[in-house]
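W.,

You were right to be curious about this one. When I first looked at the sequence I had no strong expectations either way, so I just let the prediction run and decided to look at it fresh. Below is the sequence, 704 residues in total, followed by the output.
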Amino acid sequence: MNVSALLAFTSALASGVLALVVLFRGPRSIAHRCFAAGMGVLCVEAIFVGLSLRATHSGQMLYWQESRLQTHAFLPGAWLLFSLCYARGNYRDFLRRWWPVVAGVLIVPVGVAFGFSQALITGLIETKADRDWLVVLGWPGLTVNLVFLVSMVLVLINLEATFRAAVGTMRWQIKFMVLGLAALFVVRIFSTSQALLYTGSRLSLQVVNAAALLVGCVLIAWSLLRTKVFTIDVFPSQTVLHKSLTVLLVGAYLFLVGILAKLVTAVGGEAAFPLKAFLVLVAMVFLGMFLLSDRVQQRTKRFVSRHFRRPLYDYRKLWMTFSERTTSLLDETALCRTFAKVISETFDVLSVTIWLLDQNSGRVVFAASTSLSETAASDLMGSDADLSELVQIMRAQPYPIDLDRTDERWSAVLKRCNPDYFRKGGHRLCVPLVAGGEPVGLITLSDRVSGVQFSVEDLDLLKCIGDQVAANLLNMQLSQRLLQAKEMEAFQTMSAFLVHDLKNTASTLSLILQNLHAHFEDPMFRQDALRAMSKSVTHINDLISRLSILRHKLELHPVEADLNEVVAKSLAGLESAPDLAWGKDLRPLPKIRIDLEQIQKVIVNLLLNAKEAVSANGHVQVETSQRDGWAVLSVSDNGCGMSPEFVARSLFRPFRTTKKNGTGIGMFHSKMIVEAHRGKIEVESAAGRGTTFRVLLPLTVKNP
C-alpha cells in the first residue's frame, strides 16, 4: 500500500470514529446528527479515494471515482445544516430563514449525481510527468462541484458568524472545532475551484483533501475533549453576510485562482503542487492557532503597553466602545449581555457573569454570562441562596471584592455560581453594581488568561465600569416603571370610558327587553330579538364587570377554606365539554385563608383558557399539591402554547391576548388576585407544545 492510500484510509478511520463518538455521546440534537452524517460521508468518500489509489486498471479507478462523486453529493446539505445549528441558541430562526437554500443543496447535487450517473465522468487522463491522474468531469460532475463550492462558502460564513458571536469561555470551547472545519473546507474550496477551472479533478488534490481531513479531525477531537458535547449556545446576528471576512477572502481567491495556478507551475512544476498545497495548509492552521490564542493577544497588548510606555488601557476608546454598543439598547438582557462581552474583551477574562437584584424578592437573578447558560446559572444559585449580607456590604463599601480571600457565607454562594474552568485562572472577583446608594446587582469575574492578578489600575477601572453599568441599569428600570405607570394610567382612562359607554348601551338593550311585550305576538321578532339582545347584554355586562373591578383597589374577604373543594366546584360545569379529556389529581391539603369568590375566578379563568387553547381530543390536567410551604394548583394543557417572548412581555399585561375574541384582562386580573393573597403565578409554555400554569398560595399567612 502506497503512502497516499494509507493517508486516505487513515483520514477515513479518524472521521468515522469522530462520527460515532458524537452520535452516541450526549444529546442527539440536530447539530449532533448533522455532524455525524457529515463526518460519515467524508469517511466513505476518503475510502473511495484510497481504493482509487490502489486501483490496478483505469476501469476500476473509474468505478471508484464515480462512487466518490455520488457520495460527495451528500456533503453540502449535511454541513450547511450543521453550520446553521452548531452552538446556536437561535438556530430555529436560521433554519426558518435558510430552508429554501438547505433544500436546494440537499436535493440538487444528489439528484444530479444519481439521475445522470453515466455522465458524471467522461474520461481519465494519466500525466506521465508526475504520474498523476486527471478525472475529467462531465456536466453533472461539474454541477455537483459547483454546488459544493457555494455550499462550503456558506458553511464558512456561518461558522465565522458563530465564532464572532461567541466570547470568553464560549469562544475558547468552540475555537478548535471552528478551526478544524475551516481548515478542512478551505482546502476543499481550493481543490474544488481547481476542478472547475480545469474541468477535472486531480487525484493528487484528493490526497491533499484527505490530509486536510486528518488535520481537521485532530483539531475537532481536541475541541471535543474541551466541550465533551455541543452544549454551547451563542446568538449570532442573522445579517451574517454584511460583515463576513469569508466573503472577502473567497472572492479574492476565486479572482486570483488562475494566476496562482500559473505561479505554481512556474516555480516548481505541477509535480510539486500537492506537497506545496499541504505545507501551505499546515502553515495556515498553525498561524490561525497562534493568532486566535488568548495568551498571545494578551501578551501582545502588555508588550506594547510596557515597551512603548502607554497606559494599559485606552480609556477614550474604551468609553467610546461602551457608548456605541449600549446607546441603542432598550432591554436589560441585551444590555447586560453587551456589558459582559465588553468586560471579557477588555480584561481578558473568559468567565464574566452579571446578576441583577430583584427588588421584590431580595434575591439575585441571572442576567447574562460569557460562560454559563441561564439554566446552569439558576441551578448553581439554587433556591436557598442568601445574599442579604452581601447586599449590606455593597451599600457600605461598593468596591471590587476578591472572593478567594474571604470566607464569608455569601462568598461560598458566589464561588459556587462562578466555577473555575482553568486551574491557573487567577482569583475570582465580585464587582458590586450600586447606583444612587442602592445595589442593583453584581458582576463576577474569573478565568483570566494566564491567571494574571488584577492590578490597582484594573480594580479602579472595574469600579468605574461597575458604576456605569449600575447607572445604565437603574435608568432602564426607572424608565420601565415610568412606562408601566403611564400604561396603567391609560388603562384606567380606557376602562372608565368603556364602562361609561357600554353601560349606556346595556341600559338601552335592557329597556328593549323590558318593552318586548309590545311585540310579543310576533314569533319571529320575539325569537330574533331575544336571541340578539340576550347575547349582547350578557357580553356587555360581563365586560363592564371585569373593567369595573380593575378600576378599583381589589378588596378581599378571606376565610379558611379547602382549595380542593373550590377547584372541584369550578370543574363541575366544565367537565362535560365534548371532545375534551379532563384529568384530575387533587391531593389532600390543609385549609388556607382565601377569598372564595376571587380565587374561584382565577381557577375558572385558567380552566377556560386551557379549554380554549386545546383542539379536538385535547387534554387538560388539573392537580393540587403542597411544596415548601405553598399550596400549589397546576393547570396543564396540550394546546397551542405561547411563545417565550409573549410570556415574558405580554401575558400578564392588560389588553394583551393571543385569543381571537379575548379581552386581554383575564390573566392580568388573575395575577392581581393571586398577589393580593401574597401568592404567585408561574407559567411554562412552548409554542405548539402546550402550557402549564401554577398558582402558589401560602399555607400560613396573615390576613391578606
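Here's what jumped out at me. Residues 238-242 have pLDDT under 50 and may be disordered. And, maybe more interesting for your project: The radius of gyration is 33 Å.

Coffee later to discuss?

I.
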